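Notes from the pairing session

We agreed to fold both candidates in a single pass and log them together. This is the raw record for the first candidate, unedited. Please don't reformat it; downstream parsing expects exactly this layout.

Candidate A
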Amino acid sequence: MATTTYGVNAPEAVKLWSRKLAREALKQTWASKFMGSDSNSLCQVHDDLSKGPGDRIRTVLRMQLSGDGVQGDGTLEGNEEALVTYTDDFLINQLRHAVRSGGKMTEQRIPFSVREEARMGLQDWWADRYDSWFMNQIAGNSAVTDTRYTGNNAATAPDSAHQIIANGMTTEVSLTATASAQFTLSLVDQAVLKARTLSPVIRPISTEAGMKYVMFITPEQHYDLRRNTNTLEWGDVQKAAMQGGNISDNPIFTGALGEYNGVILHESFRLPVLDSTGGSKIGRAVLCGAQAAIWGYGRDSGMTGRMSWVEELFDYKNQLGVSAGVIGGCKKTIYNSKDFSTITMSAAHSANAVTATGRA
């Protein structure tokens, strides 16, 4: 009887497993819902380096013209306006992880394939890492200094013009777990107003349901919103909520908590949670518009490409090792030393909201 098998590092197996790993890992992430190749995407994917050499991608922002113009037969020559542009660079780098079996006798004792479980384990690991890249970047989580967790680029803290702190405070660490310092819909309103009046304004994302912003909040902030029984708080939002994307098939609605003031709210436990001087936990939510983040890949990687997939045999071919890697990067957009399309909202978690340990 003829059988078809693929040995270690067989070309067919490498291509099949690496592509499947890349696609399935990305499919599991929150970040993938907001990725796209055009400028209307919350996270715009750049493929400049996917077919050529280099480790740096430069993006350019052209500011709107502000001149008055010339009426009638007035002289235009000499009254032209210069274009104003700003650039932002982000890096890509290689990141790899691997799994290694204990040996053939270990594999003999278990009823599953080490090779298959290694792929599943690496798939889960990459999904978690991609979301960590995305959330740490857009929230400006500079407390995490290991760039393996921040998209191979350093995370930059939000600038003061793009930051709102509850209760009118000027620093996050001064917040305490009082009702006035907790997350409320008032902070959403403040963020929307700021987004519409900043220069340049933060452009919302165009969807079938209209122009929308996307906001990510911590689980504890979601808890505090739901427990707020005041008028025009969470109960009122739920009366008109789209819950889970019934308004539109656009992925930014999928899994959403609800909609308020043109903002689609999502919950993420990967947002930064900090400590105040009084011992309270501080959650940092973030509002995003179009092009809030940029994502890039190197050669042989990408959303529809593949990761590196390498299998090695060790100890006289007794142990199987499997590694998976990607050349890529993620970064919050910053032009002219200012955040471009994000606004953070910092609020104290209530004493009743349980904050998980180990979150930066």
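Candidate B (folded immediately after A)
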Amino acid sequence: MHCAFLAALVLAFVARGAAAAELTVSAAASLTDAFREIGVAFEAAHPQTKVRLNFGASGALLQQIGHGAPVDVLATADQQTMDEAERRRLVRTQTRADFAVNALVVVVPRDAARPPASLAELAAPAIRRVAIGVPASVPVGRYTKAVLEQAQLWPQVAAKVVGAQTVRQALDYVARGEVDAGFVYATDAASMPDRVRVAFVVPTASPIRYPIAVVAASESAAEAERFVAFVRAAAAQSILRRFGFGEP
């Protein structure tokens, strides 16, 4: 009887250990809503794995990994950050793949009386504050600076900039009426239809593609690869479409 009890106890601990397996996924802030659903769907398909999600600016997430943060999967909002991750050998190149496309838009508070209709209007005196992701670490900020430089409007708009640490922070500034306008992704704008509205879509030089890859130092590489494959498969792609992301 005593031996049977010990055997059962050992089996319980083994089962508990299996159930406690965790997969840490660091993803761009603009993926927050979609990846929360994708994480739940992955756990349903893989009951022995718990997905731990970490959201932030792509550049900040890369720095965390570079400093040894225990991350298994990285999903960024731009190619530049993932290119840097590859250069520093922080991700497994062979696992890298694009999985979504987004668009850059200018949003204004929902009750804005005269929203700007073009980039040039952002330089007008009527627009006093503009929320922009910090270009050094936030991909949406880099896209924004690039289009404003192309339009030769960066110096004028830069004088009005309220810097945001993530695209979601830029969205919050607009939603709270703390700025007159802000640059965010179309999917972020769609998440707050009752508080912000899209003033206009901003064309970018190249599509805004999101890449994903397994982190080189992952101790759960096989499970991480399963998650990457899951994100690219039909169920997760359907979730991404529902949140407004386009096909890569």
